[in-house]
Amino acid sequence: MKRRTAIRNLTILSAGTILFPACDNETFTVYEHLPLEKKQFRLIRQIQDTLLPNKTPEFTATESPLDFLLTMLNDCYKMKDVEKYMAGITEYQNYLSTNLKSDFKDLTPEQKLSAVQFVPVKPEAYPSASFFINVTKDLTVRHFVQSKYYQLQQMDFEFVPGRYLGCAAV
Amino acid sequence: MKHTNHHFDTIVIGAGMSGGWAAKEFCDAGLQTLLLERGRDVKHIADYPTTNMQPWDFKYRGNLTRQQVADNPIAKKCYAFREDAAHFFASDKDHPYIQKKPFDWIKGYQVGGRSIMWARQTQRWSDYDFDGPARDGFAVDWPIRYKDLDSWYTYVEKFVGISGNKDGLDTLPDGEFLKAWELNCVEKHLQKELKRKYKDRHLIYARCAHLTETNELFQKQGRALCQSRTICERGCPFGGYFNANSTLIPWAAKTGNLTLRPDAIVHSIIFDKEKNKATGVRIIDANTKETTEYFAKVIFINAGTLNTNHILLNSTSERFPDGLGNENGLLGRYIGFHNYRGIVSAGIEGYEKFMPEGRRPTSAYIPRFRNVKKQETDFIRGYAISCGASRTKTNNSMGIGDTLTNNLLAEKEIQPWSFVSRMMGETIPKAESFVIPDSTLKDKWGIPQLNISIDYDENDEKMLLDFKEQMMEMLSDAGFKDIAYTDTGQAPGLDIHEMGGVRMGRDAKTSILNKWNQMHACNNVFVTDGACMTSMSTQNPSLTFMALTARAADFAIKEMKEGRIG
């Protein structure tokens, strides 16, 4: 009985983080302004993986690209943009079902690339979906380039440079 | 003597840059000193929560949340109000004021005040600045000249630690300097070109309050060398730049003579008509809203320019119905600021083989060259220019899929040199630039909100145009390209150099303070923060506030010893 009650209740892991229990054991953080279905969480994640396949083993970050994207949207973006993003997911899902007759996850890698490429070049036809893809790309790239690995290894970031040379050779 | 209950030798209102100096001087002199601060306590290092956080450690990677933006429509305009330092800015939502005219009031309510997030620029004034009002016929004559402040500048600079070069300019007197960082090759190029074409235009290294060398005094303060992190607004664990928290307040506390009282919002100064002097201060606890009174022989008001005006205007009595010391109706008037609206940017070719390495917490600086020795334009006074060149590496985020990944991981592109210059214009303090407690709206502590009426004038507009023309011409002559001008259109206040309202002067009829920053009408009250300024000049003013404070504190200590005040 106690176990069933526990499963029925949402699990609160830490401050503000609520996880959905799921048959497949996959859980997603709840974001107040982003009432996403599980398949939509997965769709965004798959699109992120398609836009920026991360094959760099050293890459680590405090949070996943998905959680960073949704945290930024939920907490920092203007509400009208949050609403447009939500509308964009739906519009994009409609685009997929109408044009590709398939779930995104079932597409081949080439088809996935085409599917994320097509909408942004037709902003007049898919205004919200274009916004959705563009924001997803922007925040996915930001998560990647602002990571420890990228800053240290790629941008030569120094937290404590201890010097300033005005005219160093390139 | 030891203080008893709520009685002290001195009370200092405001634990920021100038208040910290007053407290230090009094404590060093053996005076029991109460330092009141309206905000929370911020202890050096312990209360710098973000100081050692890497960029990737921030939840929002430096961005503000939607709620922070909504709650801070003014503070959000400040360059330092970001995820890493937003906690050092007083919330606009919690500290409302009235803008009769647009005014961006950037506030830092905590021990250390805005000295935690200041830009650390420390240029001396010269007699061309102190002579200004008398020569050009505005405000009133300063009651002091450079010779009165020279040794106090030195005194402050030795304690604070100022990085700079001895440039030998009469417009910007040299001081006690620690070694400077380098100018970069593009800045040196413009420096050389200006020297070639003009006799009176000099590009120099902007002097700043950073430790580039150490000595026994700085070690005694517990401060180490600046590490060029350039995240000063978070507070520095090295004490590499000067703020009140790392230097003044711990120093004062070590004497055993300091009582620090945070969360103490000063309602008013208590004036005793019979004794004809101020006897104390009435405060409201920021958290409990309980009212308390503290008493002292001498009171220094260093609450920050506008709050100092506010406290004095709110200190009404039978003798002073319009605010303490306000016998002439001038209190709260003749407030000025710095005109930062003009920006000129440019590019340059010829230095592609070089770029800066590391970071530098300062910039280059062109001291005022307009109307210095004689009037030569259709506007009075002039402007200094803060400027600098930089070059950055950028990544390529074009494409999607493996193309995007490969682009991001490819060799980084080094962008061309970029040069940016910003005008720092002197504004003219006028009677119609004023603040006044509002007659109806109050804050959550029941204190009337401050109503601010400060604006640009025709002189500012003409000066802005001249900056545009002169800066573009200087850059063009020096071979820069893609020269572009921007008028930010920003409201007064965002310069965070508001000054005046309790001005110094020679005559009680035309000023509030005398040459010692002492009230003409109430001789045991002193004002030594930005409120005391008679005119604004062009230099970043904090160094002058500190020098004036140390000088006034020295005077007050001697007067107390002689029994003339207190």
In short:
Chain A has helices at residues 2-8, 38-51, 65-75, 79-100, 109-118, 127-145, 148-154; strands at 11-14, 17-19, 164-169.
Q: Your description of this structure?
A:
The complex is a heterodimer of chains A (170) and B (566). In chain A, 53% of the residues lie in helices and 8% in strands. Chain A has helices at residues 2-8, 38-51, 65-75, 79-100, 109-118, 127-145, 148-154, and strands at 11-14, 17-19, 164-169. In chain A, a hairpin with a 2-residue loop joins strand 1 and strand 2. In chain A, 25% of the residues are buried. Chain B is of the alpha/beta class and 566 residues long. Chain B is built from 12 helices and 24 strands. Chain B has helices at residues 17-28, 66-71, 127-130, 132-136, 146-160, 185-197, 216-221, 244-254, 305-314, 402-409, 458-477, 542-561; strands at 7-13, 33-36, 98-99, 162-163, 177-178, 204-205, 258-261, 264-272, 277-285, 291-301, 333-336, 338-339, 342-347, 354-358, 364-366, 383-390, 393-394, 413-414, 418-426, 430-442, 448-453, 481-487, 499-501, 525-527. In chain B, helix 5 (146-160) packs across helix 12 (542-561). The model of chain B has no long low-confidence stretch (mean pLDDT 97). The chains are: A mainly alpha (170), B alpha/beta (566). At the A-B interface, helix 3, helix 5, helix 6, helix 7 and strand 3 of A face helix 6, strand 14 and helix 10 of B.
State the main characteristics.
heterodimer, A: 170 residues, mainly alpha, elongated, disordered N terminus, B: 566 residues, alpha/beta, 7-stranded mixed sheet, 7-stranded antiparallel sheet, 24 strands
